[in-house]
Amino acid sequence: MRIVSLFLVAAVVLAGCSRGVESPGTSVNKFSDPILVKIADLQDRRQTDSLLVYLAHDSALYRQTAALAFASVQDTAAVEKLGVCLKDAAAPVRMAAAYALGQTVSQGSAQLLLDFANEKDYGVRAVMLEAYGKVAAQFKVIENPKISHDTITQGPAIAWSLYRAAVRNKVDTAFSFIPYTLLEAGTPMWGRLGAAQYFSRPTTPVDKYADRLVSAAKHDPEAVVRMAATLALKKAKADTIVQVLAGIVAAEPDYRVRVSAVRALQAFSIEMSWPALQAALLDKSLQVQVAASEVMIAAAAKPQASVIAEAARAAQHARVKANLYKAALVAGAGYDVLQEVIDLAKETADPYHKAFLLGALGQSLSAYTFLQEQLLAADTPVVRSTAAEALVSLNDRKDFPAKLKPVFAALYKDAINTGDAAVIGIVAGVLADTTLGYKEVVKDFSFLRAAREKLSLPRDNEAIQPLEAALALFEGRKAPAVKNEFNHPIDWALVKTIARDQQVRIQTTKGDIVVRLLVEEAPGSVANFVSLLQQGYFNKKFFHRVVPNFVIQAGCNRGDGWGSEDYSIRSEFSGRRYTTGSVGFASAGKDTEGTQWFITHSPTPHLDGRYSIFAEVVSGMDVVHAVEVGDQIVRIALVP
C-alpha cells in the first residue's frame, strides 16, 4: 500500500485540495472551468493583486484555489488576506490558507498560524501546526496551554511541525520527548514516520532516545519508518550501535533500509564499521554497494589504503570501482594506484565510466595535469564537467600548496574560456570563494566578463549564479539576484486535452515505468512534460544521476545535470508530499524548472514544498530501484 494512503486525512487532503468539485460534463479535467484557468494562470504569472480578489469570491472552491495558489507565489503581501481566510466558513479554504502561509516565510505567517488552538477542524489544525514549523523564527507552539500531546490526535501533527522546524535548524530539542513518544508501535504510521524523520535530522539529539529508535529501526512494520530511524542512529554515541547497524546490513530485507544503515556507519570509526562495510560491498543490491563505497571515501584512513585498493581492483561495477579507488587515494594510496586510475580512464570508452574515474582523481594533486588535459580535450559534456569538478575539489585539500594557486588560476581561465556553461559555473564557484583568495592572484578578470556575455537566461541560470558572484567579488560590488523573467506561459489548449488521471509509459533499458500525471495540481509542469515527450525530447537521453535511496534523475540534454533549454517554467506546490515514486521537476531554485525530472526511491519530506510534484509512479517501482547512472530512456509516450 502506498504511503500517501496511510497518512491521516489531515496530512494529505491538501494533495487534492485544488479539486473542490469535479469538472462538469465530459471534460477531461477541471480546467474546463474558465475561472479555475484564470486563477491558475494568475498563479503562474505571480500576479498577487489579481489573485487576492479571488480570496473574497462567493465560491468556496475559488477561494480555496486562490489561497492555495499563494503556496507557489509566496508573496508576503498576501499574508494578511490569507490570515482572513483562516476564519473562512469552509474548512478546505482554511486548510489551503494555512498551507500557503507555511510556504510564505514571515513573522506574520508564524503569528497567524499560532492560532491553531482555536481551529475546530482537526485536519485544518494539523496543517496549521505543520505549517508553523516551516516559518517560525523560534519554535514555541508547545507552550500553548490548549495543545494536546495525545498521540492519536495532535501528537503526529506536532512531530511533523517539529520536523519542519528541525529542517531549518529552528527547533528547541527539549521537545524531542514528543517524537520519542510517537515511535511507539501503537501510533499511526504518519506519526511514527514524522517522529523518525525528526530524529534523522542532523541537529536533533538521539542518545536519550536511542532505545526506541533501535526498536523502530529493527522492528517497525513499515520500511519507510525503519530507514529513517536507522539513519538517525548515526548520531548515537554508544559503540553497541555499530552492531545494530551491522545486523541491519546483514538481515534487513529492504535495500533502502540497508542503505540507511550503511550511511549511518559513516559516523563511527572505520575500524569499528569495517566488517559491515565490507559485507555491504558484496550486497546483492548495487545501491547498497554504491552507498558503502561512498562511505569508504568519507571514512577511509591510512591503514585501509591497500585493502581498499584491492577491493577496487576486484569490484565489478564501474561506479563502485571508481569510488573505491577514490577512497584508496583519500587514505593515502601511492602513485601506483593513481596510475591505475589514470590508465583505466584512458582505456574506457564509456563516458560515464570515465567520469566516475575522473571524479576519483579529484583526490590527488598529482593528477591535475591529466585532469586539465581531459577537460580541454573532452568531446562529451559529462567528461568535461566531471574533470572540472575534480580539479576544483583539489582546492579543498588541506595540503593544497600556495605555490600552485597561480598555476590553477591560469588553468581555471583556460577552463572558463572553453565556453562550456557547466565548466564556467563549476570554476566560477571556486573563484567566488573568498576563503581561497583567487582575487589576489587573478589580476585580469576580463575573461569572466567575456564568459558572462556568452551565457543567457533562462537557459544558463545555474551557471550564471556563481559567475555573477565571482564577478561581484572581483569588481568589489554586491552580486545581483539572478532571476528568470516570465517566459513560456502555460499552454492551456494542451492542458485541456490531458485527462486528470492520464498515464505515461517511460520505457528504459531496464524496463518500463508507468506514472500518473497530476494535471489538476500542476498544470504548467504537466503541460511542459507532455509537450516535451510529444516532441520525442526524452528519447535516448540518459539517467545521469542516481543517489541510493533518494532519486533517479533524467531529462538533461547534456547528460551531466547541467543541461537546459532556452525557457523555464514556474514552481507549482499543491501540498502533495514526496513519497515513494513521486515524480518532480529538478531546479536551480524556485521558478527555474525546465526539462530535468526525478523519481524518488522513498519518502523525501525535505523536498516538500520546494520541488514541483507533477506525477506519481503507478507501476514499475522495481525498475526505478534498478536504474543506475548511464541507463537510457528508450521512449516516453502517453498511455492510450
TrEMBL record:
Signal peptide: none annotated. PROSITE patterns: CSA_PPIASE_2 (PS50072), PROKAR_LIPOPROTEIN (PS51257). It is an enzyme of class 5 (isomerase). Keywords: Isomerase, Rotamase. CDD domains: cyclophilin (cd00317). Its EC number is 5.2.1.8. It comes from the Bacteria. SUPFAM superfamilies: ARM repeat, Cyclophilin-like. It holds the Pfam family Pro_isomerase. The keyword Nucleotidyltransferase does not apply. Gene3D superfamilies: Cyclophilin-like (2.40.100.10), Leucine-rich Repeat Variant (1.25.10.10). This is peptidylprolyl isomerase. It comes from Dawidia cretensis.
